[in-house]
Every structure is written in C-alpha cells, then in structure tokens.
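Protocol step 4 of 6: record predicted structures for both targets in the notebook before any analysis. Target 1:
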Amino acid sequence: MHHSLTRKEIVPFAVQFGSLVLATAVVDLVLHRAGLVAVGRWLGIPGTLLILLSFLYSLRKRRLLRQGRLVTFLRAHEILAWVGTLMILVHAGIHIYTVLPWLALLAMLVNVASGMTGTYLLARSRDHLAARRGHYAQQGLADAEVDRQLFRDATSYELMKKWRAVHLPITVVFAGLALAHIVSIFMFWGWR
C-alpha cells in the first residue's frame, strides 16, 4: 500500500508541482536572455485573469452555469489555474520588495498545492466508489439499487468534504491577499 500511494499520488504530485517551478525558471530565464524582463511585470494581469476564469468550474459545480460537462470544467479549471499560476510566478520572479506580494505569492502556492491534492483525493474517491460498485454488483443487486447504494456511499464519503473544508478557506485567504496586492499597486505605484 505504501509503495502504491507513493507511485500513484506522491510522485505525480511532486512532478506536477516541480514542473510548475521548472517552467517558471525556464520562462524567466528566456525572458532575461531575450532582454524582455519587463514582459514578466505584465504577466500578472493575464495570470490573474486566467485564475479568475478557472473559477467557472465552481460556478458550474454549484449549477449557477447549466451548460457544459462538469468534467470539462474541472479539466479547464486545472489547466487555467496552472498556467495562470505560472504567469504570476514569472511576474513575481525575485523582484518582490514588500511583504504583501510575498504573502499573496505564498498563499497562491499553498492554494495550488491544495488544489493539486484535491485532484488526487478525487481520484481516490472515484476508485472507492468503483470498488463499491463492484461489491454491490457481486451481491446481485439490481442496477437501481446499486445506484441508490452508490449515491449513499458518495454522499457519506468524507474525504472530499474534509478537503473542501480546507481548500475553500485557503482560496479565500489567497484571494484576499491578491486583491490587497492589486489595490496597493493602484494606491501606491499607479501604472508607471
């Protein structure tokens, strides 16, 4: 079990998070070598917009949007948040001179790590439900009864509920710090 957990969840998580860090370093290096360091300064805006766009998944999940498949919105959420985070990391670089942007950046990284954790917990939840479906089918239950039992299992499976209870406050803290950073830019530095 320990080796399976490491192979199925821990290593892919580390690779995914590491690829974000590596991609940031590569893009930053390319911008520096090309003499386009100023481009990085402006990547915060499209990065923020991509992250905001990724929240369409939350609207779809809560049925505030009715069109589209939920799984498509989830994949778009993951990709948009990853690319938006990459842009913001390049935007931040090592050129942060005050505490607020560092706090916002740290909160963003914690939020990304939490979101990536949710991806693996969701896969674990699906595996659990698939195993339960097989168990109920072996018992000879009718399809309608299997679906009823699975619904009960899905609503009582606590793993995702516990994760959401952690991820949402992390997201709110990140959003608050990011908003404070953006407001401070307008208040103290303007659009120089």
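Target 2:
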Amino acid sequence: MNEVQPIRDKNKIEEMKIELLKNCYRDFILFLVGINTGLRISDLLKLIVKDVKNKTHIILKEQKTGKIKKFFINSQLREEIDKYIQGMEDKEYLFKSQKGNNKPISRVQAYRILNNASEKIGLKEIGTHTLRKTFGYWHYQQYKDIALLQELFNHSAPSITLRYIGINQDIMDRTIEDFYL
C-alpha cells in the first residue's frame, strides 16, 4: 500500500473543493471538515448532526485511541456546517450514505470520493488520511508549533508528527536539492 500525502498546494485544495462540490455538497463538507479539524476518517464518519449542531466543539471518543477528543469549530467552518445541516434531523449521520436508512458512507466510499476528485485535478498519493495530513501540514506551516500539533494528533513524539505530515521529507528534499559534490 502506498503512503498518502498531505495536499501541499493551496491551489490544489481549492480545486479539490470545486471538484467535490460538483459531485455533491456532502462530499465537499466531508473534505472541508476533514482538512479543518484533523480528525481521522473513522471518527468523521461516525458524526451525527447533533454532534455539531449549535456546538462550539466537536467532542468524541476517538475510535483508534479510545481517548476523548475536543476540537473547536471555528467561525468559517461553523458557517459551512450550519448551511449543510439546515433541515437535517439531529440523529442523521453527517455524511449519510444513499444506501440504507440513515447509515454513514463507508471508509471505502470516502476513499473513492476523494480519489476520484483527486484524479480529475491531477493529484496523486491521496487517500482518506490525506485530510488529516493536510490539516497537520498547513497547521504546522502557519504556527510552526510541533508540540501543539503532536498533542492535537495524540502522537507520542514530535518526530512522529513531522514524519506523518511530510515535513521531514520536504526538509530532506530541499537539502539534497542544494547539495552536489
């Protein structure tokens, strides 16, 4: 299995948003919530409307770690979520499948959605973890606070976080670019 990467180009992030919006609003919101919260896809897919409706934070028990996670919903994301959930019932899954009665899309379907959109805009090495990695990559670019990001991701060491978001590879590539004997 190939390792997925963060989206390192903000223009490609915008292209993904446009491409996903062409398909359906749900897919666009999945991408938006993923890249703006850094939550794992397994946790995103379990969200129901009442988890985000009139809430300042998304609070959940992480499926992978079993730890309680509290994530602030900023004003821009709040606006998009409110638009999306308008008219939805509290018990509805946020990312509801068209199959079955109130079931979330599967992890495989989320992968297909992201992969199809990424192919159309020329991105490679994309998967469901790309959302989380993109959040981490851009959060690090903006704040340069690896300790905070490590805490947000529940990683045990800064080196794990740097490797996870692809910063180590970027740094190694840049040093080799300027190195020639």
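Step 5 preliminary note on target 2. The radius of gyration is 17 Å. The CA atoms of residues 51 and 112 lie 25 Å apart.
Proceed to step 6 after PI sign-off.
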